[in-house]
Amino acid sequence: MRKIAGLAFLATMFMVSACNTVEGMGKDVSSAGDTVAGTANDAK
Question: Which stretch is the leader sequence (predicted)?
Fold first, then answer.
């Protein structure tokens, strides 16, 4: 369990460090949401 939590923490840090600002993070999250929504629409 600790190993999984550690890997999740590292992945989160890499994702956050990829976007330098809160605005950039918002764009990243929005893009991920659009991708999920598109995949859901394709599955219908």
Answer: 1-18
